[in-house]
């Protein structure tokens, strides 16, 4: 039963990454959070990482240290979702979404600074990489909030209509 939601999440992520969209406005972190909240634990991190890998086959791979940081950031978003799963309240999910966005921003831009060639490898170069990435952070944050709101909000609306919590069974 849980394979269908996992496949639908994977499809959503693929379509959203491959279709034209504002930079960083994708559902991958939301899929990680949602998967951690509702899918079996073993799929919580596998689904967003598989989505990234499959879509990267089409989009193109890039420097492995930076790509590793991106993938690790989405794995961390799944871990954040697993923590929020224990207290599935609005505040925990909203805070988890903000934390996932901030973590992605900090880790990936540090990786661009450390492993890329765009910025000098000193403290001012690190700050410059963060400064230049603020527009991307805005899009990531808005995308994460939007897609998490749609996915989690939709699932919770279903549970209210059924008048019982929705869990995707093994």
Task: Describe the protein's topology.
Blueprint: H1 3-18, H2 28-38, H3 41-44, H4 46-59, H5 64-85, H6 90-115, H7 123-132, H8 134-162
Helix pairs in contact: 1-4, 2-4, 2-5, 2-8, 4-5, 5-6, 6-7, 6-8
Describe the structure.
With 170 residues, the protein is an all-alpha fold. It is built from eight helices and no strands. It has helices at 3-18, 28-38, 41-44, 46-59, 64-85, 90-115, 123-132, 134-162. Helix 5 (64-85) runs antiparallel to helix 6 (90-115). The longest helix is centred in the last third of the chain and has 29 residues, at 134-162. The protein starts with a helix and ends in an 8-residue tail after the last helix. The model has no long low-confidence stretch (mean pLDDT 92).
């Amino acid at each position: 039963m849980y394979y269908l939601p996992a496949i639908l999440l994977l499809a959503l992520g693929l379509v959203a990454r491959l279709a034209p969209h504002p930079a960083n406005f994708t559902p991958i972190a939301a899929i990680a959070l949602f998967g951690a909240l509702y899918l079996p634990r073993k799929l919580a991190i596998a689904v967003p990482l598989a989505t990234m890998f499959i879509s990267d086959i089409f989009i193109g791979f890039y420097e492995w240290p930076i790509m590793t940081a991106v993938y690790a950031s989405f794995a961390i978003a799944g871990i954040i979702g697993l923590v929020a799963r224990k207290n599935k309240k609005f505040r925990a999910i909203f805070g988890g979404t903000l934390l996932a966005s901030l973590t992605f921003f900090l880790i990936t831009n540090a990786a661009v600074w450390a492993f890329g060639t765009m910025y000098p490898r000193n403290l001012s170069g690190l700050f410059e990489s963060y400064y230049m990435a603020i527009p991307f952070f805005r899009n990531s944050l808005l995308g994460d909030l939007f897609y998490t709101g749609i996915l989690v909000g939709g699932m919770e609306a279903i549970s209210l209509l059924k008048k019982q919590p929705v869990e995707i069974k093994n």
